[in-house]
Amino acid sequence: MKLRIRELREADGLYQRQLAEYLHCTQQTYSRYETGELQPSLMVMESLAMFYNTSVDYLMGLTEDKTPHKRSTRKDFK
Predict the structure, then answer these.
(1) How much of the chain is helix, strand and coil, in % rounded to 5?
(2) Residue 55: helix, strand or coil by DSSP?
């Protein structure tokens, strides 16, 4: 994951600070995601996947396909 999020950020010409602001965390925390010192929560991974228009699977290195999965909507239970 750490390599993917760094590659995506650099390809977009963004700074760690910009992603940290988007994720509502510090630049130091985001830096630790990129170095692998800290594992992002599922919520953070989802936010990154939506930001980069890809899937969590791609961010985690489970697939080479950057295409995001079709997002389903939650059904109301009554």
Answers:
(1) 55, 0, 45
(2) coil
How far apart are the C-alpha atoms of 40 and 62, rounded to whole Å? 16
Pick the CATH number of 2-60 from 1.10.260.40, 1.20.140.10, 2.30.30.280, 1.20.1440.20: 1.10.260.40
**What is the distance between the alpha carbons of residues 72 and 62, in angstroms, rounded to a whole number?**
20
Q: Are 26 and 35 in contact (CB under 8 A)?
A: no
| Local structure of 74: helix, strand or coil | coil
Nearest to 45 by CA among 30, 27, 65, 26: 30
pLDDT in tens, 42-54: 999 999 999 999 9
User: Per-residue pLDDT for 77 more than 50?
Assistant: no
